[in-house]
Amino acid sequence: MKVNKYTALAALLVFATAFAGAKVMDSTVATVNGKAILSSDYEKLKQSVTEQYKKNAPQLLQNQENVNKLNKEVLNQMITDELLIQAANEQGIKVKDSEVAQGINEVKARFSVDEKGNKLDQKQVEKAFNDELKKEDLTYKQFESRIKDQIAVRKAVDAIVKAKVKQPTADDTKQLFNDVQLVLKGDKEKYKTLPRERLEVALPLAAKLNQLTAEQVKISPIFIKADKGLSAAALKDKEKQAKDVRKMIKENKITFLQAIEKYSDDKSALATGGELILVRGVMPKEFDDRVFSTPVGEISEPIKTDYGFYVIRVNEKKAKQEITYAQIEKELGQYIAAVRMQQAMVGYLQTLQKKADIKILIKLEGQTPAPKTAPAAPIKK
Would the pTM count as exceeding 0.85? Predict the structure, then answer.
């Protein structure tokens, strides 16, 4: 589970630091080489990440197992970040004021459009940025400190990890292209004969290329949930609800976006302005046939699925495309370099973890209870 939004500063910059000027007592949830990760920071970040899921993928939070996993990931990320900060400090990494200023501007740029995609002027950007700082209970100096830590970590990783990553050759990119083409043909018996390490690299890239080149439609969806266990009469009522929403849109009594906000049981499309891209072959054939046969600009009659009814407006269609090696040679090289960097980073983090003294002092679901509760620790002024 990962946060897919840049508007939560705590989710974006998860370096755990004590809040300057605070005078309350706090407890410790974990220590990394003796450095405390405070409960207030953990709870704040956990709440921020949860809010993003409530907004963009609320259905995931209905499963307690997902919630438990999310909580673990938040704490693990805070521990990882603290390890990286300590490693950067040990290397004596220096960060210039100009680099910090540039980093802050890059974050502010993420506030240049609102949630509906409207471009904001500079004054509005500053307001949105400062409002988010207040929402996250961060001062500008605390935020600035986190940016500085983030840059220091990036420099340290570049010096230790990135410098050791072997750059891909033309043979590497050609081999990957051939592997991806084999996967895209869909013959599992053939592509599963590839060495495991090559297949693991090719599969996600093939999925991405398929998404970009396969026949696809851009749709605006409204979903009316209807569980399998509903009676015939209740199911009919759900279908009527879908038809009524469609009718209101057709009669211009409500916009499609407003209908999603008010009536849809799946509001994930709101995160992208009310639109989603559907690639042929992802959904069941019966669903695909209905959607892909709907003319651009038209609104479908309710489409029944195992989970409910969809009312779809088709906004744009894109035919299947063929792609050549020459078209993506550069991107293939970048992809291989990114994979190698990720693998090297995993190894580096494992090395840091093995050398570190890490204590988790709270009980997380599915984890062996901590030996004891950490004592209260004052937040540094």
Answer: no
